[in-house]
Design brief:
With 804 residues, this protein is α/β, with parallel strands linked by helices. The chain contains 35 helices and 21 strands. Helix 21 crosses helix 25. 44% of the residues are buried.
Length: 804
């Protein structure tokens, strides 16, 4: 019957497609490959396309790939490299991409991919051996695969440069072909959306080059796991256009018009020209430019200033988001005759000679080409600190005191600009230093050589990555239902696994009970930078602290009445009351019912908990109202300290709801994972199983779920160092396993050092706590480390089919 229904649905969908005239334009296999959500949902692709996909703008078939050039023209005497530009517009990143093509074309065959169109397309085509695109990989991320399979996979690509975060969509295709790839990241992670964009780029790149310290710091702040050694800082070189583009004549005419009617008039009237440049948008700080202009005019009302902003986007008639406010700001500041907007022109360098100074008012702007061009032309720049890599350059040039204003302080910027303009010697010195230093600092030839050397080093490391991948594929046993539970594709899981450890992003354990970072720290790898799991396999799978005992539902459950004679308790911090019934139901499914100690936040919660507990099959020892500090650890180590110390085994659970996690489903999955592992479910009685292991092994001190994610100290090391001194522990390891989420079963005697801390409520930090970096987060990590005092060890639980 189900088969008949499925066939009928497909016939209906196909009929509808014919009716709509779409059948010849719809590719079922492509649609399923292109949209995993449709594939995973099990819906007929044609039906989905007609009902939803057409309206959502989804593709019905692969877009035709545009390319020019000939593979026959590739010189066999030269190696071939790939350069990717996110578009061919006359803006910063594409202009840099074009200069990369021009610079590397002296040595290599060049294949260029452009993801978006623009006036530089013709220049890219003339300088490249082969030009692919424009192709929109945002809508069609697999579009390159077919072309690669037919053409590029036959070539040996030495390496690839992927310029700009906006080009990241090509990275998975390159990485899956093990092409050594360097991403050139100029943007700030702070303003890049979606939030995972930088993470994706770093993950799929063999190396990520940042042009400034500020942009690297921004990436590290958002992704602290970023491997610094894979991310050098190399300032870009000064760019030039390879040739005049198709709008050259119009721009030249416009420049003459500007000289006659705008700039010419300014010069004739002996006005002091102050420049600003860039697209008219909030990030470029055009409003700050106007504010600085107002301060300068106020301080020197008779100085004949004129402020010109060059860049596209000023449209107060149609742009209600920004331009209308800029126009109003100009009017209210009485600057109508003092501030002028001109559209962008490739002849801007001709205007530098007419200007006195450039105000770089951007809120965040890594290394704008206009600033580099101005500096190398000897035009002094004043910018804000902490907003641009130009401030780093000015500091290195030892002129930052004169040219770098306090963060977004337009008054300070105005004062610095005036001081420069009206001090002839000071101005001359700043101009000369700017020009001489910038010429060396922003050297394109040097930039190309440094990138080439880096790429060659990356290519060598990529050989090791290939070897590691083959080792794990041939000899390993990657447990994908533990490591990557949302996929059943072993090949893609292997590639993601190896890439995660090479990049440092999203590291996960290959199988329960093994911690790769502990292996690297305590055993070491034969090849520096080699994958620890691959090295472990090549070393013959040696035993050591990187391996932990794994408790599974298949572990034999021993008769507890005969084997365990001690007292067992379970502490539950019931903050989120709606989650308590399920937790209690899981406990009741076990044969063993520990004594309960329960902490709640108020009297209303206490009354409700008492009603829930009427169904508990064991003994309820105490229910206590506790302050809203210390979270679940405070009640455990403080409120019930004396009670718990009279027991032999103690469990610790809490009703977990991670408010800090944006995706509530992730928090729910995590909580179910913890309950399944420590309490059990309809199929497994994990309390019984865990206690049986404590009964059988007096050295077992702590049991907690093996989280597949690799999580370290984070921002908690300093707090842990203070605890280490009080606990008289040895040196803290850099890498270790701990109960992520602070839920576990433990032998009370093994945790004695923690009880002996005698923590009071005054010791715990007040709410709200940071996402990471507090005493409580440090205590979460300390639990397994105190076991050294009792010569006991920790074990982990694993339930096949249960992960997160």
């Amino acid at each position: 019957m189900l088969l008949i229904v499925s066939i009928l649905k497909r016939l209906v969908a196909t009929t509808l497609l014919h009716i709509a005239g779409k059948a010849k334009n719809f590719d079922r296999l492509f649609y399923l490959e292109q949209y995993p959500d449709v594939r995973n949902a099990g819906i007929d692709p044609a039906e989905h396309y007609l009902r939803y996909g057409l309206r959502e703008g989804r593709l019905a078939k692969p877009e035709k790939l545009i390319w020019s050039g000939s593979f026959e023209n590739l010189s066999p005497e030269r190696e071939t490299i790939l350069i990717v530009s996110h578009e061919a517009s006359l803006t910063g990143a594409p202009v840099l991409s074009l200069n990369l093509v021009k610079g590397f074309a002296n040595t290599y065959n060049i294949i260029t991919i452009i993801l978006g169109d623009g006036p530089l397309k013709e220049s890219f085509s003339k300088l490249s051996n082969i030009l692919i695109g424009p192709i929109d990989l945002r809508r069609n991320p697999w579009a390159l695969n077919g072309f690669f399979e037919k053409n590029l996979d036959k070539l040996e690509i030495k390496y690839a440069f992927v310029n700009s975060i906006e080009s990241r969509f090509v990275l998975p295709s390159l990485a899956n072909r093990l092409i050594p790839t360097i991403s050139l990241l100029h943007e700030f992670s702070a303003y890049t959306r979606p939030l995972g964009a930088f993470k994706d780029a770093i993950f799929w790149s063999n190396s990520t080059v940042f042009s400034t310290k500020l942009t690297l710091q921004s990436a590290i702040k958002d992704h602290p796991e970023l491997k610094i050694e894979n991310s050098p800082i190399i300032p870009q070189g000064k760019c030039t256009l390879a040739q005049k583009n198709s709008i050259h004549k119009r721009d030249t005419y416009e420049l003459e018009l500007i000289k006659d009617k705008v700039l010419g008039k300014i010069i004739r009237e002996e006005k002091i020209l102050i420049l600003g440049a860039g697209s008219v948008q909030l990030r470029k700080g055009v409003d700050l430019f106007i504010d600085c202009a107002a301060h300068m005019v106020s301080k020197r009302p008779n100085s004949n200033f004129h402020f010109v902003w060059i860049g596209k986007g000023y449209d107060p008639i149609h742009d209600a988001n920004y331009s209308v406010y800029l126009k109003d700001q100009i009017q209210r500041s009485n600057l109508e005759s003092t501030v002028t907007f001109l559209r962008e022109t490739e002849e801007i360098e001709s205007i530098y000679s007419l200007a006195k100074i450039l105000l770089l008012t951007s809120r965040l702007d890594p290394l704008p080409n206009v600033a580099i061009d101005a500096l190398t032309a000897g035009l002094p720049i004043v910018c804000f600190e902490k907003t641009t890599g130009i401030s780093e350059f000015l500091e290195q040039a030892t002129i930052s005191n004169s040219c770098v204003a306090s963060y977004l302080d337009t008054k300070d910027m105005a004062e610095k600009a005036i001081n420069l303009i009206f001090s002839e010697d000071h101005y001359k010195h700043t101009s000369q230093v700017s020009k001489s230093t910038a010429t060396k600092y922003f050297n394109m030839e040097k930039y190309i050589k440094e990138l080439d050397q880096l790429a060659r080093n990356v290519a060598m490391k990529n050989i090791q990555e290939k070897a590691d991948l083959e080792t794990v594929r041939e000899y390993g046993d990657l447990n994908i239902e533990f490591c990557y539970p949302r996929t059943n594709d072993l090949d893609s899981s292997l590639r993601v696994y190896i890439r995660s450890w090479a990049s440092g992003i999203g590291k996960r354990k290959p199988f329960p009970g093994f911690h790769p970072d502990v292996y690297t720290e305590r055993h070491g790898t034969s090849i520096r930078g080699g994958d620890p799991y691959a090295d472990y396999l090549r070393a013959g799978c040696p035993k050591g602290p990187w391996l932990q005992k794994v408790i599974t539902p298949k572990s034999r459950t021993i008769s507890l009445s005969n084997k365990f004679q001690g007292k067992v308790a379970l502490h539950i911090h019931a903050y989120y009351l709606e989650l308590f019934p399920e937790l209690l139901n899981r406990i009741n499914k076990n044969s063993f019912h520990p004594d309960l100690f329960i902490s709640v936040k108020d009297s209303a919660a206490l009354d409700l908990i008492e009603k829930y507990l009427s169904n508990y099959q064991g003994r309820v020892n105490k229910i206590e109202i506790v302050p809203n500090i210390g979270r679940d650890i405070g009640p455990f180590l403080t409120t019930f300290r004396n009670d718990i110390c009279s027991y032999d085994l103690i469990g610790h659970m809490h009703t977990k709801e991670s408010a800090d996690i944006a995706d509530k489903e992730i928090g729910k999955t995590w909580y179910e994972f913890l309950q399944d592992n420590l309490l059990g479910n309809n199929c497994n009685k994990m309390i019984d199983i865990i206690i049986s292991h404590f009964a059988n092994d007096s050295s077992l001190g702590l049991v907690f779920p093996d989280d597949p994610n690799v999580i370290g100290w984070g921002a908690n090391k300093l707090f842990a160092e203070k605890l280490k001194a009080r606990l008289k522990l040895k040196e803290l390891p850099e890498h270790f396993n701990f109960p992520v989420g602070t839920m576990f079963w433990a032998r009370v005697a093994a945790l004695k050092p923690l009880w002996d801390l005698n923590l009071s409520w005054q010791d715990y930090p007040k709410e709200p706590l940071p996402y990471d970096g507090s005493l409580l987060h440090a205590l979460e990590r300390i639990f397994p480390l105190v076991l050294e005092k009792s010569n006991s060890y920790s074990a982990v639980t694993y339930i096949p089919g249960v992960s997160r």
